[in-house]
Amino acid sequence: MHQTFDAAIEMNLLHANQRGADHNRAHFDQWGITCINLMSSPGAGKTQLLEATLKSLENLQVAVIEGDMTTELDAERLRQHGVPVVAINTGRSCHLDSKMVAGGIQQLQQHDPQSLDLVVVENVGNLVCPAEFEVGEHAKVALLSVTEGEDKPLKYPVMFREADCLLITKTDLVPHLDVDLAQIEANVRQINPTVAIFHVSAKTGEGLDAWCNWLQQAVTVQSNRLQLTV
């Protein structure tokens, strides 16, 4: 069966993006950096989580590539924590792609990238497109806030299928909501049985230690992998 014209264009775009992502990953590998792609819908708490994470990761040198459609509001919040932050405005695009992040990597070279351990790419808030366009990351992390309900993993499966780690955020709000955390997890496991799941609240600190330990382990695994390839 022949592909439609639109399907062929989409396939070509994804292939071109993948080549760019592989190139970006090679840069990160050359510098000894682990890259995490942080994805969620708008308002799930990515920036607030990052602020709490930056306060907790005392043993890692971290930089952020911050994606936003029009402003640098989130980038300015993160700069207050004394880490390098590269802002990328995507305009009308609802996700970062590998070419945009390549521009961010060029700007990172002003910050002695070989001194960095971890780069977090905070993607544009969207539950669909960010999961389909790799940017050069070594792992994908998805956020799902308790305010979004139990059905989102089933309605937007690609994001949750691709995730290596899922953070169920804003758990401090659970007592005020009609939400079932066990059902959220069950729906996620239906899509992705092996994903690591943490319940976190950037406000109370719940789950932050477990999340930061996961990040530390991801950096260690990537560092060991690179040493084996030398």
Automatic annotation (TrEMBL):
The keyword Ion transport does not apply. Residues 36-197 form the CobW/HypB/UreG nucleotide-binding domain. InterPro entries: CobW/HypB/UreG_nucleotide-bd (IPR003495), Hyd_mat_HypB (IPR004392), P-loop_NTPase (IPR027417). Transmembrane segments: none annotated. Gene3D superfamilies: P-loop containing nucleotide triphosphate hydrolases (3.40.50.300). The keyword Zinc applies. Belongs to the SIMIBI class G3E GTPase family. HypB/HupM subfamily. SUPFAM superfamilies: P-loop containing nucleoside triphosphate hydrolases. CDD domains: HypB (cd05390). Keywords: GTP-binding, Hydrolase, Metal-binding, Nickel, Nucleotide-binding, Zinc. It comes from Leptothoe kymatousa TAU-MAC 1615. This is Hydrogenase nickel incorporation protein HypB.
